[in-house]
Design brief:
The chain is about 25% helix and about 30% strand. With about 190 residues, the protein is an alpha+beta fold.
Length: about 190
C-alpha cells in the first residue's frame, strides 16, 4: 500500500522562494509557512466577551498567545491560526467554549496558503502593489488587514517591523509568488 505524503501548496516553488534573498542581497526573503491550522469563528462579540474568549475586539488587530494567533476579520468573525495538525483541537476548544451560543466554528485549514516576507525591503515591495498604507505608523506589529497585493486577495499579518505573513487562496499562490519575484529580480 502506498503511503500518502502531504505536499504544501508552494513546495514546487521552494527554489524560487529561496532565490529572493540572493536576488535582493538579503533585503527580502520569502518563506512558505505550510499547513497552518486555520479555524474560522463567527459569534457575536457580546457573547465572545461574556465567555471571556481570547479574541481581539479591536478592528484589524491580532492577539497572540503562545503558538496561536487570532486575527480580527470583522465585528463577529475571527481566524484562529495554530500549528500544523491542530485544526480539530482548535475547533473542539472553540465549540466547547461556545456551547449554547449561536455560532459557527469551521476548520478552514485548506482555505489559505501562507508566505512570510521579511527583510528591510519587504514593506516597500508589498506597498508597491497594495492599496492600503503599510507604513509602520499605520500598519504596525499586531495588526492584520484583508486587502489586495498584485491583484490577489490576501490576508496580511504584521509580525514585527520587517516581517509580514501573507495568506492567500491556494489557487492564487503561484500568481502572488510570480508577482513578488517579478518585482525583485533583475
Amino acid at each position: 500500500m502506498a503511503e500518502l505524503t502531504a505536499r504544501s501548496v508552494l513546495a514546487h516553488r521552494a527554489t524560487d522562494l529561496a532565490g529572493a534573498s540572493a536576488a535582493t542581497g538579503g533585503r527580502i526573503s520569502l518563506v512558505e509557512v505550510p499547513f497552518l491550522a486555520q479555524v474560522d469563528v463567527r459569534v457575536s462579540p457580546v457573547e465572545a466577551a461574556r465567555r471571556e474568549l481570547l479574541l481581539p475586539f479591536e478592528p484589524n488587530s491580532v492577539l497572540r498567545a503562545g503558538d496561536r494567533a487570532v486575527l480580527w476579520l470583522g465585528p463577529d468573525e475571527w481566524l484562529v491560526l495554530g500549528p500544523p495538525g491542530t485544526g480539530p483541537e482548535l475547533v473542539a476548544e472553540m465549540e466547547s467554549a461556545l456551547i449554547g451560543a449561536h455560532r459557527s466554528v469551521v476548520d478552514v485549514s485548506a482555505g489559505r496558503a501562507w508566505l512570510e516576507i521579511a527583510g528591510p525591503a519587504a514593506r516597500e515591495r508589498l506597498s508597491s502593489g497594495c492599496p492600503i498604507d503599510l507604513h509602520p505608523r499605520q500598519f504596525s506589529p499586531g495588526m492584520c488587514a484583508q486587502t489586495l497585493i498584485g491583484r490577489v486577495q490576501v490576508l496580511l499579518e504584521q509580525l514585527d517591523d520587517t516581517s509580514t505573513r501573507i495568506g492567500m487562496r491556494p489557487s492564487f499562490a503561484d500568481s502572488l509568488v510570480d508577482w513578488l519575484i517579478e518585482g525583485i529580480t533583475p
